[in-house]
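Team,

Forwarding the record for the chain on the shared tracking sheet. I've put the sequence and predicted structure together so nobody has to dig through attachments.
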Amino acid sequence: MVTAGGLRGESKLHITEDFNPPMSAWKMLFFLMVFFICVSIPVLLRAWRKLKEWRSILKYAATVTLDPRTAYNRLVLSADGKEVYMVEKRAGAPGGCAEI
């Protein structure tokens, strides 16, 4: 209860506990959904642009087989010769590699 004195006397103002009610679950869900949508739209747009770039690159893709004898010494080729990855150090040149 809040009281205030003045020239005419006292006036009383009674504020109940329900003056600032808690937020309902539906309202909280609504705000969370709006926030999620606002955050995800720019992320999705960037991913879509990258996808368009990859589509244009894949138009010129070709099937290749790499030769392990001419590979850089830090590259390791897969068994089928179509995939490659880099390692920190290679123990030594594989058998049959030609030194250039």
